Amino acid sequence: MYKIIIVEDDITIAKTIAEYLRRWDYNVTYIKDFKKITEQVIQFDPQLILLDVMLPYYNGFYWCSEIRKLSKVPIIFISSASDKMNIVMAMNMGGDDFIAKPFDLDVLTAKINALMRRTYSFQGQVNYIEHNGVILNLSDTTVSYDDKRIELTKNDYKIIQILMENLGKVVTREEIMQRLWENDHFVDDNTLTVNINRLRKKLSEIALKDFIITKKGIGYMVK
């Protein structure tokens, strides 16, 4: 069952669209917290997004650009601000289609069905790991948190990837060294400590000072 998320601050409209699309066997939800739209999109992992232009806090163009940093998931803009400039802006920011309000639900559904048919196989799946708002982008080796982003080196990326893949579990120093250098027998144990400290310093730049926890004598973990 394909999943659709609706980003629309008029809850009556959002509920109406959701109820109608469910008749077509879509799994549909809508945004409730407009401060953290990206996080909710990640958690739901939709195959299509319906996105209004006029939203609280930040407009739909902003959120489209944020989502496009993580995914090629199809995005249809739905808005009463349907002048030429807004339509062009929507397409330039990464939108796949634009439907002006008020619209006929049958027309909306037909456009959604057509876009779904064109898109899936599905080559544009979200390619990231997310935990408590921290997003590790596996395609460009960056970490994002609270609208801030840092670039990672190869070793930074491998360390945080293995820790986030094992959330809540302690990963031993030996396991991490094996992942980084394939053979840990010829690597100075202090080298891993240097790499961990460097990564922690980078994470602190985006307010993630205590993201990596040390388990003394064992290894590291992310809770």
TrEMBL record:
It comes from the Bacteria. The modification 4-aspartylphosphate is found at D52. Residues 126-223 form the OmpR/PhoB-type domain. GO terms for cellular component: cytosol; protein-DNA complex. Gene3D superfamilies: 3.40.50.2300, Winged helix-like DNA-binding domain superfamily/Winged helix DNA-binding domain. Keywords: DNA-binding, Phosphoprotein, Transcription, Transcription regulation. GO terms for biological process: regulation of DNA-templated transcription. GO terms for molecular function: phosphorelay response regulator activity; transcription cis-regulatory region binding. Pfam families: Response_reg, Trans_reg_C. Residues 126-223 bind DNA. Residues 3-116 form the Response regulatory domain. PROSITE patterns: OMPR_PHOB, RESPONSE_REGULATORY. May play the central regulatory role in sporulation. It may be an element of the effector pathway responsible for the activation of sporulation genes in response to nutritional stress. Spo0A may act in concert with spo0H (a sigma factor) to control the expression of some genes that are critical to the sporulation process. This is Stage 0 sporulation protein A homolog. The lineage of its organism: Bacteria, Bacillati, Bacillota, Clostridia, Eubacteriales.
